[in-house]
Every structure is written in C-alpha cells, then in structure tokens.
Specification:
Radius of gyration: 17 Å
Number of strands: 17
Helix content: under 10%
Order of helices and strands: EEEEEEEEEEEEEEEEE
Strand content: 35-45%
Structural class: mainly beta
CATH architecture of one domain: Sandwich
CATH superfamily of one domain: Exo-inulinase, domain 1
CATH topology of one domain: Jelly Rolls
Number of helices: 0
Amino acid sequence: MRNLTIIGSRPGQARWAAKTFGDGKSGARGRTVAAVVCLAVIGCAPAPDQAQPMEEAPAQASAPATADSPTPEEVQDMPEGYLQLLRTSDGRFSKAGWNHYGPGHFELDPVTGVLTSHGGMGLFWYSVREFGDFVLDLEFKCADVHTNSGVFVRIPGVPASDDYIYHSFEIQINDAGEGIHQTGAVYDAEAPTHLASRPPGEWNRMRITVVGSRLGVEVNGERVVDWEAEPRGKVVSFSPRGYFGLQNHDDRSPVYFRNIFVRDLEG
C-alpha cells in the first residue's frame, strides 16, 4: 500500500509523495513506490525530485476517554491555511451555512462545538461552497461499536434526493463493519488497510485528502486508504468538485463530530 502525502510548496500547488509504510495490524512489510507530484489545478505528472515530509497538520485536541462533551479548552484553534466550518467570528459555534437533507438532524453545542446526530438517515451538508482539491480534517466519536455514520465528499449539486449517494464518496465510520464497509473505507468501493479507530467513547481524528481522482484517508495519523478513484460498488460516477456532508444514519447509536477544518488546495 502506498502512503500518499500532500505537500504544499506554494499557494495553489499540492504535491503527492508516496512512500513506504506497513499495513498496520498485520505488520506486513510496506513497499516503496515512486514519488508522484500532483498540481492541484492541472492534474498529475511524474517528477524526479525526492518525496518530502508531510506538511504540518492541525494539532490534535486532547481526546478524553469518556463519552462526555469536551470542555471549551479542548476546542481547537484555526490552523493556518484552514477554514473552520462551524466556528463564528465571536468564538462561538453556529450551524450557519449548513443545511440538512432527509430525516433526523444534528444538534450543535454552541460552546464546545460538538455535533450530535439524531435519527436518520439524513445528511448535514456544508452549503456555502463546493470544493475540488482539498484536505478535510475533523474529529469524530462513536457512542458504541455499532455506531454507523460517514463523511461524504464531492457531493455534486444540492442534495434533493438520495441520488447523491451514488455520485460522491462516503468515508465510512462503522467499527463493526468489514472490508469496504469498515471505518476508514471509501464505502462500498475501497477497503482500509486496517482498522485504526479508537474504542467507542474516545475521539478519533480523520483526515481526507482529495487531489484530482486520488483519494487518501488517515485515521488517527495512520494511512488506511490511498486510492486512484474509479467507478466501483455504489460509486457509479463522481464529480471533480462538490459539497461536504456528515451522515446521521439512525437513532440507535449517535455519532459526534467536532473541530471540522478544510484547506482548499486550488487557490
């Protein structure tokens, strides 16, 4: 499995670097692959230079081992180059700019910035703008092992029916699932190399990087997906740009989200 890393060298430019890594739990020896350079605005082309270290990611907030909401001190400040998708200019949190499609809803704590899912199946999506090439960085927590949710990216157009499910990518959250339906998978299309999530009640960090048709997923700092996307499984087709969305799957076991940041790699 290739470890794909985004390296920003100047505004509007992003480079992929593939490097050696193992498969996590199995301890299988990784293999080294050639570095690939990807300009976010013009596609990908081979490059002779050596792969460079991963760019600095937002610092992870302290993660409590209980299911309680974090204190205000655990709310993460906006890292340079990233946009906070819930926090307002006065320091409080708001769902302004977000819409909900389908049954259920997400409740937001305006002090801690924690989103809690209720009912479903629905989609809480960021409607301010679409993104093409980007890094989406967030934290999630499961109420129990059967919590089922997902992070949708590149939703093409305003969701008006369930058809968006077949024309976007869903990064799965479901520790009880297997293979292409397990936490970290591109749902129904590409399985994670291993399960990297923490036990229920603990916060996890997910980082999704999309440049062109290349999609990478990290969970708690471990690369679990590096995929050159293609129509597969429920993914009938996909758009070069689109909206973000968080899934409230059902009312049996809630999911929690906080510290949602995005970095636009196109400009």
